[in-house]
Amino acid sequence: MDIHKVSILGTESIWIGYDSLNEFMKEIATNLASSTYVLITDTHLAPLHLPRLQKAWAHTGSTARLLTYTILPGETSKSRSTKAAIEDWMLENGCTRDTVILAVGGGVIGDMIGYVAATFMRGVRFVQIPTSLLAMVDSSIGGKTAIDTPHGKNLVGAFWQPKYIFIDLKFLETLPVREFINGMAEVIKTAAIWDAEEFCRLENDASLFMDTILSRRDPENPSNVDLSPVREMLARIVKGSAAIKAQVVTLDEREGGLRNILNFGHSIGHAYEAVLTPFILHGECVAIGMVKEAELSRFLGTLSSEAVARITKILLAYHLPISVTDEAVRSRAGDRIIPTKKLIQIMAVDKKNDGAKKKVVLLKAIGETYEKKATVVSDSDIAIILSPHLKVSPSLDKIPSSTTVIPPGSKSISNRALVLAAMSSGKCKIQNLLHSDDTEHMITALIKLNAAEFSWEDNGKTLVVKGNGGKMNPPNSQIYLGNAGTASRFLTSIACLVPASSGLIVLTGNERMQERPIGPLVDTLRANGCQIEYVNRDGSLPLNIAAGSAPRGGRITLAATTSSQYVSSILMAAPFAQEAVTLSLVGGNPVSLSYVDMTIEMMRAFGISVQKDPEQAYTYHIPKAVYNSPELYVIESDASSATYPLAMAAITGTTCEVPSIGYSSLQGDAKFAVDVLKPMGCTVIQTENSTKVTGPPVGTLKPLPSIDMEPMTDAFLTACVLAAVAPGVTSIYGIANQHVKECDRIAAMCVELAKLGVKCVNKPDGIDIHGINVADLKETKEFIDTYDDHRVAMSFSVLAAVYPFPLLIENRKCVDKTWPAWWDCYHGDFKVELTGFDSHEIIASPGSRPRAVTSIFVIGMRGAGKSTLSQWISAASELPLVDMDKELERIHKRSIKDIVAVSGWAEFRHMEADLLRDLYNSRYEKPVIVSCGGGIVESEESRKLFQQIIADYGIVIHVHRNIHTVHEYLMEDETRPAYGESILDVWERRKTWYQECSSHLIYAPHFTAEDNSLNVKKNLADIAQRMIGDTKSMDNLLERERTFFLSLTFADLNEAATIIDKAVTGSSAVELRVDLLRSPEQADGIPDPSYVTEQVALLRKLTCLPIIYTVRTESQGGQFPDHAYDEAEELILLGVRMCVEFVDLESTFPDKMKDRIFTAVNSRSITKIIASFHDWEGKYKWNDIYWNNMYAACAQHGSVVKLVSLAKQFEDNLALLEFKKMHPTKPLIAINMGRLGQASRIMNGVLTPVTHSLLPIKAAPGQLSVRQVHKGLSLLGHPDVEPLKFFIVGKPIAHSRSPALHNGFFKEVGLPYVYERMETDDITEVQRKIIELGDSFGGASVTVPLKLDAMRVIQKGNLSAHAQAIGAINTVTRDVKTGEMYGDNTDWLGIKTSIEYAAGFDHTFHGASGLVIGAGGTSRAAVYALHKLGISTIYVLNRTISNIESLQEHFKELNIVPILNIEDTRAASFIPPVVAVSCISGEIPLGETMLKTILSEVLKPRSLLGPRKTRRVLLEMAYKPRLTQIMQLAEFHGWNAIPGLNPLVAQGIEQFKIWTGLEAPWSLGQQFVLG
Ligand SMILES: NC(=O)c1ccc[n+]([C@@H]2O[C@H](COP(=O)([O-])OP(=O)(O)OC[C@H]3O[C@@H](n4cnc5c(N)ncnc54)[C@H](O)[C@@H]3O)[C@@H](O)[C@H]2O)c1
Ligand SMILES: [Zn+2]
Questions:
Q1: Sign of the CA dihedral 1289, 1294, 1296, 1301?
Q2: How are beta strands 462-468 and 425-431 bridged, if at all?
Q3: What pLDDT score was predicted for residue 1016?
Q4: Nearest CA to ligand 1 atom 5
Q5: Are β-strands 611-612 and 619-622 bridged in parallel, bridged antiparallel, or unpaired?
Q6: Which of 94, 385, 909, 1432 is least enclosed by beta carbons within 10 angstroms?
Q7: What are the tens digits of pLDDT across the range 1512-1532?
Q8: Which residues of the chain are modeled with pLDDT < 50?
Q9: What residues bind 7-phospho-2-dehydro-3-deoxy-D-arabino-heptonate, as annotated (predicted)?
């Protein structure tokens, strides 16, 4: 190849050649004379190409120095530190101003070395020798140089033009496949903005290109690709791109406007790149960016849907990603949520922007930009495009009174039109063609067969087909049809018509396609003389079809029951048979006859009239003739899609015309307007080809008492949303198949409409909708779940148009399946206001749950604690409890005993299974907690059901405890009938059944000791929350910047019982090192699962901190055998079954095993994964690319990444900090082991593993305690740990124990904080003090009488929700970073926790009454706490009514009943309280006051309380004296009186947590307070 030169900025400095290094080097030696040349490349390229480069240099005979330097490959090298290293090296080697730098490599080398050249000695000459495709077509040209910073890519750099750009295409032979593809992104970009013809060529070249780079290898050198088939193409691409770029750069060197357009795909692409680098390459991010920016153009109305589809398709054809959710992206970068806000924030630093206004390159057509520069676009429009979900705002008033919408073309008609137009003679313009895989494959195949020429007009809106009238040639390669079913059927007959005398047509498809049947069609064609052979399996593709074997014609028969596509295929090919054809469908009524009619109808439009036999049914006569295409063929719109715009008119009282479908349509759903909309009250005007609907005034749609939608099942969802606002009952039937579509659509409509207050009844064959007035639709904070079903999404968008509140619709992209531009039409034509909405916002929005919650089933042996646990789960999840035994008795109106006696066990088990099925199937209506009978697993029917539930990712909990304990318990309990057989035998029989039938295990510890029962209850409540999809607590934990977990290194946790409470101080989680567990009977080996089960249960009793469950292998620093994968997997899955919060997953485990665990975890988001890797020997340095890859590998499975190395020198800690900065996307635990690595532990941040002096051994060398980490931070002067002052403010406080409590905690965790007293009742004095202290003020505890006044010092927006609800604060916090002050109230939590603790674990307060004594500031917190406990009637006892009234006024929603005199307690309606909180001073003597009389009356035990041992709790809020008179009185009457120190400790712990983010244990607090 000759050297081709391109001129840029007035000089011919771009040279393109193949194997031209000699010429290039000669030019350098002659025209860039110097004493020193510096060649810089990367360590990957050096061995491949340096010898060739050096040889070429030697060839010049130059005597000047040629120094070479290599850097690590990859984006991470484009850094300040690499630049500095190169500069230092050049200085050391005496490089001066005359040095010439040769940058040999990809864009990384080019950009970075260019920047070195730009600044070295204020700028030296340099030459670009690009080696990657991306560098050749883009980065090396134009003089932009840059490096990355942790804030983003390319943020620091300069314009510095290279003297030459030498492009040698031979370099590409060693380029890895992924890099090749990466470069194609820029090539496609250039064509997309500038060169429509080149874009077409690229579309056509895709398969050749991909085939070549993927498969053709040079046999001599397997790493080399033999590029000869695409050498021409590459030369064309490189020359073309270089020419365009040179032209643009020459016109606008410094990027004033025009040069912007090269940035198409980059505004958004760069934002993704900033978060995804280095896992996703530049070109890959640009590909995603191009799709988004094209979609943005379409949304803003500048670009057609067809063009967007072409861009998407071409990227896919070159194996480029089109979305961050693509499998390829997710497997490289991990499954992560990238907040739209974050992307937009990154986009804000784009150099193109005009101040705060963002600029994006919009397209007008393929090959043309909207403006000759980037266009200003609003953040909200960008957000819509980037967000996965949408919020629809009420915009009824904005909807235009009349609109015209053309929905996408019908798929069936599009495919037929392509075949017919290609087989015709003459030119046919096809409009409204559907862009889908099917049509795409069809076009490609027809081109390959040379059946027609295709071109696009009118911005891609019109496809021009120049048919060859049936003349075709055998293609030179096989025809690949993907999974395009219709195309494969139609083309099988068409391929037989290829007239050549020799040649073969191979039809093939993807794996799925190769399983789909085609036998009946092939049989029929063969019988008519066609030569077709199966290549692999009989009856399916691939097929070998001999050219020149056209059907003989004459009489052809086909079974009527086969697919109508076979019939259509033969019909369309029939005119080319050697004789006229008579086709008979025999043996019954043909299926989908309407599609056969459609084909006949369309053949008529293309000039051939098929005659139906007047006598014989289903017999057709097809003449021997030639197709003649009409000049224009407009594809009828898809009728199901058309229902949405028409329904928009119906529901909003406006007019909408769909000009592309009318009464002549053969599509079933075309009847929707006349059969559904008209009877609902719309005016419908339908012509042959158009439909116009005008809705009645909003709110006046009429219900349809009974409508058969069998002929248009897909449209039933559209009908449902209209019926929802047509007051009365609409009953739809004939749609049974809709239970098993993309989702159970009938169930989906029931659940989703219920969210808006519309009741539906789910029926086997249909649905009843109880329509209501528009104004009565209920406001919901929940989002509409689309179940990834386009029809659900589009239907609800119709309803959202009249919904009077904002409505969130999840997963907007699901409409892509049939109508990618639906939201553009919705917003652009109907003017409905949209806002983008992010995944995390949806999850965080109150009341919303990520998935429809399903019922939770609880199984287990009788006596295992099933009913108690079910009750707790029900209370915590707020889902109603159903006891199956009771429910059966209710339904059958007999006791279980009677049922069994009368009908026998078998029948009883059957009834049980029936009920179970019902409970499960009605899951979408109302989820419940189901407590099942102990023996339910005895029936196979029920077992199958449970397994089905688990397979559907439902939740079945097996509740169990030590079987001997169960045994003892049941023997003691005489109220229950004993088992007929030994309990142990029963257990042995059922053991595996319980296991198979459950997804989770809750192993209940023994509950007799009440001291720890609260932990169990709290843990269970938390698990229940996670089971219903609320992961807030864990998400919050991961969001905090500095957290710790304690590694428990015990063989048996019983040894930890006494120390754990103190040892966890400051930690937010505990790690259970499963590999270290050893039962007393076991000396070594693998811990037994049953022992591990007991240990997890024990840990749940010892602490309510989240558990990190770790099976650490030997090679990763633990004691678990390295290759015992099966055992490791079993144990890890046991942890998942037991609902631990985190499991550690070592990245060294086999991939399959990791995937299985990942799936088990991911299917129900109850547990999270910490993906870990330990470089135990410190083999790799932190700036080694190795760690980037390891991060990527871990991020794939883990919500948290944990990387551990060994520090060999102190500097390793600094390198680690750099690494952390570069990897901000997932919570990252990164530490260096060893004493030298301690600094890294101090600096780690999230979830630092810690030890405590009370533990027997450290889990790893160099491990520190929480106290040591804080001391370290403090000594380093770290801004997170400044010396701060805290206060208690109020009066009197001389005896307050708060200072002892907080100073004790601070000291324990090593924080340099002090807590002092400030006695005052004047809030201004407090304010003055705060100002005086300035930055050293940390916060304050506020007590009487300032709790209300203190509200004034805090801005309203800075009050916590609880503080606002209570109307008083007890905690002030100053955020050290911002200086803002925040107000909170922890009193109520102190009260609530103390009561729960004292009442024991098996207590629920729902429906009970409570008493508050006093009506001041603390009483507010007490009222709120009682309310939060579930108490419905709250009595307030106070001397005067006015304070009670102000309480009532404040808590308007609550039922607060005053008690002013003794009569009030004797009223018939009086419910004796079971909880009381005293909020009056403890030091005022009660004497024989009125108060005492009333109190005695209220507190005295009543017969009404019944025989149940209700433990009544009185909580004293005064903490002096320790035993107040009220407490004495309560105890006298049999109450459990709790001293004020308890709530003091509980609220103090909460306060401490607010101030420090750390957890503190109760026992320690108590110890400090008691002194
Ligand atoms: N300055 C600009 O105008 C501009 C334009 C686009 C992109 N860029 C920058 O370019 C960089 C991306 O460039 P890149 O994609 O070339 O990445 P790269 O430089 O990292 O090269 C990719 C990989 O391919 C290897 N490689 C390169 N040529 C090879 C060959 N011939 N044979 C074998 N291996 C080879 C490299 O060693 C490297 O591992 C990004 O930093 C991007 O920001 C700059
Ligand atoms: Zn680029």
A1: positive
A2: antiparallel
A3: 81
A4: 139
A5: antiparallel
A6: 94
A7: 889 998 877 888 888 888 888
A8: 843-852, 924, 974-976, 1008-1010, 1505-1509
A9: 122, 138, 144, 154, 186-189, 245, 259-263, 266, 282, 351
| Residue 1137 and residue 1000 in contact, taking contact as beta carbons nearer than 8 Å | yes
Residue 341 C-alpha to ligand 1 middle, in angstroms? Answer: 29
Q: Is 616 in contact with 588 (CB distance < 8 Å)?
A: no
Distance CA 1109, CA 1127 (A): 15
Q: Which of 1090, 1093, 1098, 1091 is nearest to 1070 (CA)?
A: 1098
Beta bridge partners of 733: 708, 766
Q: Are 919 and 841 in contact (CB under 8 A)?
A: no
Contact criterion met (CB below 8 Å) for 1077 and 1089: no
| H, E, C per residue of 333-402 | HCCCCCCHHHHHHHHCCCCCCECCEEEECCEEECCEECCCCCEEECHHHHHHHHCCEEEECCCHHHCCCE
Is the pTM higher than 0.85? The answer reads no
Res 729: pLDDT: 94
Q: Which atom of ligand 1 is nearest to the CA of 74?
A: 20
Ligand 1 pocket mutation, candidates 75, 129, 131, 259, criterion most atoms within 8 A of CB? 131
Q: Which ligand 1 atom is nearest residue 130's CA?
A: 28
Tokens 């290194």 found at: 1049
Atom 20 in ligand 1: which residue has the minimum CA distance? 74
Ligand 1 centre to CA of 131 (Å) is: 8
Choice from 134, 149, 155, 249 to test ligand 1 binding pocket (greatest atom count within 8 A of CB)? 134
Instruction: Report the catalytic residues.
Output: 255, 270, 814, 1174, 1202
CB 877 within 8 A of CB 1025: yes
Distances (CA, A) of 1364 to 1290, 1370, 1477: 20, 12, 21
Nearest-ligand number for the alpha carbon of 50: 1
**DSSP letters of 297-341?**
HHHTTSS-HHHHHHHHHHHHHTT---STTSHHHHHHH-S----HH
What's the CA-to-centroid distance between 186 and ligand 2, angstroms?
Answer: 6
| Binding-site annotation: residue ranges | 75-78, 106-108, 111, 122, 131-132, 138, 144, 153-154, 171-174, 182, 186-189, 245, 259-263, 266, 282, 351, 860-867
Closest approach atom of ligand 1 to CA 281:
15
Residue 876: the pLDDT is 78
Encoded amino acid at 60, one letter: T
Distance of CA 961 to the CA centre of its chain: 36
Burial class (CB in 10 A: 0-12, 13-18, 19+), 1312: middle
DSSP string, 1164-1181: STTSEEEEEEE-TT--S-
Picking from 137, 199, 142, the residue whose alpha carbon sits closest to that of residue 169 is 137
Ligand minimally distant from the alpha carbon of residue 131: 1
Q: Give the number of the ligand closest to the Cα of residue 129.
A: 1
Query: Which residues have C-beta atoms less than 6 Å from ligand 1?
Result: 42, 44-45, 48, 73-75, 78, 105-109, 111, 131-132, 134-135, 138-139, 142, 144, 153-154, 171-172, 174-176, 179, 182, 281-282
Summarised one tens digit per residue, pLDDT across range 1311-1365 is 999 999 999 999 999 999 998 998 999 999 998 888 888 888 888 888 988 888 8
Question: How far is the centre of ligand 1, averaged over its atoms, from the C-alpha of 285 (Å)?
Answer: 14
Q: Which pLDDT belongs to residue 736?
A: 80
Distance in angstroms (rounded) separating the CA atoms of residues 633 and 431 = 6
Q: Among 50, 108, 1188, name the best residue to mutate to test ligand 1's pocket (greatest count of ligand atoms within 8 A of Cβ).
A: 108
Q: Which residue has the tokens 């082991």?
A: 1233
Count of H helices and E strands in the chain? 53, 62
**Host H or E run for residue 275:** helix 266-276
- Kindly report the backbone phi and psi dihedral angles of residue 1501, in degrees, each rounded to the nearest multiple of 5, phi listed first: -65, 145
Residue nearest to atom 4 of ligand 1 (CA): 139
Q: What is the DSSP string of 1366-1399?
A: HT--SEEEE-TTT--EEEE--HHHHHHHHHHHHH
